[in-house]
Amino acid sequence: MESAKGAEQHAPEQSGPAEGPAQSMAPQGPQEDQRQLLYHEETIDLGGDEFGSEDSNNLVDKLDEPMMESVLISDSPNNSEDGAGDLGCLQDVVETVEGGTDHRRESVVDEEALDALSDDGESEGQDTPKDVSDMTPDSRASLKEDPEQEEVKDLPTFEHEGAEDLGPGDMRVPAAGPASGLSPRQPAPKDEPVPMCTIFSQPPPAGSQPRVLRDGFESQMVKSPSFSGVSEAAARTPPQVVQPSPSLSKFFGDTTSTNSLASDFFDSFTTSTFISVSNPNASPSIPESLSSLAATPVGEDSLGSADPSYSPGTERSESGVSTASLEIPQSPKPFSQIQAVFAGSEDPFATALSMSEMDRRNDAWIPGEATRNVLISVTTQQCSTVFVGKEDLTMPGLKFDNIQGDAVKDLMLRFLGEKAAAKRQVLNANSVEQSFVGLKQLISCKNWRAAVDLCGRLLTAHGQGYGKSGLPTSHTADSLQLWFVRLALLVKLGLFQNAEMEFEPFGNLDQPDLYYEYYPHVYPGRRGSMVPFSMRILHAELQQYLGNPQESLDRLHRVKAVCSKILTNLEQGLAEDGGMNSMAPENRQASVQLWRSRLGRVTCSMANCLLLMKDYVLAVDAYRSVIQYYPHQEPQLLSCIGRIFLQIGDIKTAEKYFQDVEKVTQKLDGLQGKIMVLMNRAFLHLGQNNFAEAHRCFTEILRIDPANAVANNNAAVCLLYLGRLKDSLRQLEAMTQQDPRHCLHESALFNLTTMYELESSRSLQKKQALLEAVASKEGDCFNTQCLKLA
Amino acid sequence: MMRLTKPTLFTNIPVTCEEKDLPGDLFNQLMRDDPSTVNGAEILMLGEMLTLPQNFGNIFLGETFSSYISVHNDSNQVVKDILVKADLQTSSQRLNLSASNAAVAELKPDCCIDDVIHHEVKEIGTHILVCAVSYTTQGGEKMYFRKFFKFQVLKPLDVKTKFYNAESDLSSVTDEVFLEAQIQNITTSPMFMEKVSLEPSIMYNVAELNSVNQAGECVTTFGSRAYLQPMDTRQYLYCLKPKKEFAEKAGIIKGVTVIGKLDIVWKTNLGERGRLQTSQLQRMAPGYGDVRLSLEAIPDTVNLEEPFHITCKITNCSSERTMDLVLEMCNTSSIHWCGISGRQLGKLHPSSSLCLALTLLSSVQGLQSVSGLRLTDTFLKRTYEYDDIAQVCVVSSAIKVES
């Protein structure tokens, strides 16, 4: 066919940062360059002559078929127009081998080919490294599992003991309550005379128990991860040091009063009428043996028969616990289940009726096949034992000590001295009530690290503290809410790895013990999942921040499938979970509304995830489909799509979406619509490189809404591009001073510090001033990186 | 100095909860208070807050290098006669980028001289921005300092081209040429291809074949995917027709001809623009040699072992020589020629042609290549070989009956 022989085709190779003397100087931050280059002489070796060229003749290819040839991208049009001079020089200096490197058959090589070869090598080198980045997380996950497995191994024996002690059925349980006489305790088979049992179920007054308990929380959180801290390591801190808050001290106080308080404590949040499940650690008097829910001894079978010699102590030493906690073995360690306690309501029907409509629709979820079978057997065979494999149970525990700490304060110590640092006062986990109220307080004043800490304490109180991962435990709606808050805050803080570690025991959030049905005596008649819907979203989204957006997408799709199924069920006149149910129309309506909004939520998450994956086409589709669930957000969604197109560089399509926004907002005149339109126009001008017009639009927004932080910041950014550094700085500084509560935002501060650096080499002072401003306003969740002080 | 790439939009991490959850409205309230979220739709990740470029980033051939140059008086003295010069040194030249070369009379403490420079990058490889500042101190001392900023200009696109000669449109002598251009994005960010066009040389007219007419609207063949992800390649197709005045001179278009060049305009983040042109694309016209043999007619499907006819056209492409040709037909394993091999075709004048009907049959089924024609110029004793002239599909006649 066509023979292009002899037609020399040159193509510049991607010269990359890898050439010649340039190597060490790959584009860097200006700061470094400054220093580095200061002493350079005027004559600079550009290393251009390391390029080579090759005649891309290749007989074999040409005979077979017309060949793909690389083409010299001469350079910008204007330059090539200049004529042969430029071009020639380019070819001499810059041209390199043609890029089809992979099938490099060197059958025809001319003299220049040597250079060519070396160049090829380089270019291939540049190509390879790109895939490396996304590897790790999986391997990490698998590694992580090991220790747990070990811990888990030990369990069956204990559980089995429990089971044996109990005998075949637990029906007799309530007969003889513990001395406490509190109803929640009733099911505890105190009366069982088996020796193993007594070890665990020593009533608190005996032995060192009370000490452990009274020690409060402070010490637990301080232990280093090397301590497998099964216990609270109480002994280390004298109890007096920390005055536990009232609620907590009561909670941990003597057993007689504990129970009711504990339940109050956890009841503070949920609306339903149940008595909280007490948990092993919090209520020492509860024996490990089974409660009314005895229905579920965890041991898979009786293989690991009770080995009396196997005491908890040995287990602990195995797991490398310091012996500091000799007393711990006595601490109540009901390795078996749930202290399912029910408030004495013998009539399940009454409670079933009392379960509110709202609970039902909120908690509704469709369990997987296996989980459903377990749940069915639990509900139908209340008297006999249902075996649930450990792998099907959720056994979470804190995975790391407190992350308490205040980066702002650390920086102040470093740059401003101790005196200034001492002025920094933020709330920490100790300074608030040890309850949900305190937790909310910490969250709202942006002390999220402290809030994470407090969640940890409250979970420890629930028996899911540090080192408890892999140990059987029971769940309540409250404990799951605590987990949700803790994990959500970790994600907000950007501590994704930590969140992942602690999320891991929850599996796919579909284990039977995460359903109300699993605890028929605690939550009589209540159905659905205890896992908050938002926690499912969080669980799915977390993966994308860890670099596995595909996994995120998979999880979101699963959530979405259930949402859709529930909606279908509702439309077909069934209950959410597909059961028969006669719902009042208004309740059905409310439920449809709720689930539609959840469907919208999950769709939006999918869109976000796709955006992160840079799959813009699908992301745009997903955002568009969110509109049907959140029609009131249509203008925002359309604007967002427009911005996506702007980001890609597709200005025309962006403009189309922005025009749609203008049409939509015309109907609902008002300030917000006006701002949105102006904002979009400004962005469009930015896309057209017209910073002056963009600045005008942002300023216009400020005229009608002077407190608009976004417009303020963006206007300042435009000023910089217009060459007005000082004006830009003035605007940003004014903004952060006027409304520090909203405007000390990461992005604004980042812009400010960037400009300080540009302005002068003595930017440190100004940055420190910013630090001081931050210190007085921001909580411990502040991301200090934006100050660029480090 | 700070490179001014386009600012980026801040993305936030939405964490929400429902009213019934423990934090109640708290998380949602926090998101509402966060200025980086979208007012009224906080769960959208892509906010509206602009952030300045965080590092120098990559710069690619054809893009515009913009930079902020700020000279700040850190001292507590007034300095005079400040002259700021920004030069860009490339491997081949040195360009002055400063907007003005006039000296500033004086600079007070804590004041600055600002300049934003732009330069369209036209060379690959190392560039060095040289900022030179000279001034006079209060004491009348002349001072001078320079700063260097070095950066690499990378190649953004990989362009490969391939020419296809149209199967000769049987009636005309001239051929259409199809150009396939593969354009690969070798940057690390998505790239919106705003324009990819072929500017033909004077000899050709070009038709772009990258859009289809759907219900009166021109739709690109690339669907909704208007952008190229990193390492993605996209194919563009163009059809080139020689202009009448060149086409008439049959045989003129031979050897190396200049086809034209590709003009590519792309945009990236927030409309950052880049433009490149390829060098002139050159094409080796099919080497017809002195004598061109082209097919005028051939059946596409023939029956096994049944004779079929083809019509060849033989053109004398040489400039002034009249040729005396002898036709030989050599059988291949599957194609058998019927008729006499070695017959005289008579005199053929320059730029004239004759048509020749030939008969052959195939002994093998399947897609068979017609090969084995030899033309010998008796004067020069030169033999021209013609293989793979065309393909025919050979089917069993039995099957044909059945069907």
Overview of this protein structure:
- The complex is a heterodimer of chains A (790) and B (403).
- Chain A has 33 helices and 4 strands.
- Chain A is mostly helical and 790 residues long.
- The longest helix of chain A is centred in the N-terminal third of the chain and has 30 residues, at 137-166.
- Chain A is globular.
- Chain B folds into 4 domains: 1-55, no CATH class; 61-155, Immunoglobulin-like, CATH 2.60.40; 158-285, Immunoglobulin-like (Sandwich), CATH 2.60.40; 291-395, Sandwich (Immunoglobulin-like).
- In chain B, 4% of the residues lie in helices and 54% in strands.
- Chain B has 3 helices and 33 strands.
- In chain B, strands 4, 6, 7, 8, 10 and 11 form a 6-stranded mixed β-sheet that branches. In chain B, strands 14, 18, 20, 21 and 22 form a 5-stranded antiparallel β-sheet that branches. In chain B, strands 12-13-19-15 form a 4-stranded antiparallel β-sheet.
- The radius of gyration of chain B is 34 Å and the shape is elongated.
- Chain B starts with a strand and ends with a helix.
- Chains A and B meet through strand 1, helix 1, strand 2, strand 3 and helix 3 of A and strand 1, helix 1, strand 3, strand 5 and strand 9 of B.
- Strand 3 of chain A pairs antiparallel with strand 21 (272-278) of chain B, so a sheet runs across the interface.
